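I'm stuck. Protein, please.
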Amino acid sequence: MTVVAQRAERVSTGATNLDVAAAHVDKPTQPIAELLRRGHAAMPGLDVEGVSLVNIGDANARATLYGVIEQRTLNQPGSVTLDAATGKLIDKVAPKTMTPGMVFMRGLQALHFGNFGHDAVKWLYFMLGLAGAFLFYSGNLLWIEARRKRRQVEQPRRTRVMAALTLLALVYWRLARATLQRGRKGDPNSVWAQH
């Protein structure tokens, strides 16, 4: 779970009517375990993946718990915003309470980052990605071969080099991307860990 804490003069919790400024009055913040308990009570199905704490130690401190609600749709993210000083519920956003525009955007994000389905669906998505890469590569080779047949019988060196570079670039890109994703999963500051 990722915990992000920051001090800010003005906080936006996502809804325009919930914006809050720092009170500049010291008040202890609830322990993380208590905030998690209250968040689970407010939204029972939420699997918390991250907590954002703003204005810690202030009377207007806010804690937002982000996570997913396991269901058979693309739109799974949810959040609970609490008053971090008292633990009182301020706002909650579940997939069923989102606007149609937000549902559409979250669905596109899930498709883009591959954050949907279970292992079988993720492997299928990976294989389809490889199929798209192979389609590009095979089309490029067919184009090179057609040009070669029209111009001369023997394939020139520059054409063979271009075909080899195309294959190497494709393989290198896929391996580098897989290595970056695997290497940064545990890093809370990573882009991969946030999606």
About this structure: The beta strands are 2-6, 10-11, 20-21, 46-54, 62-69, 77-83, 89-93. The first helix runs from residue 32 to 42. The mean pLDDT is 79.
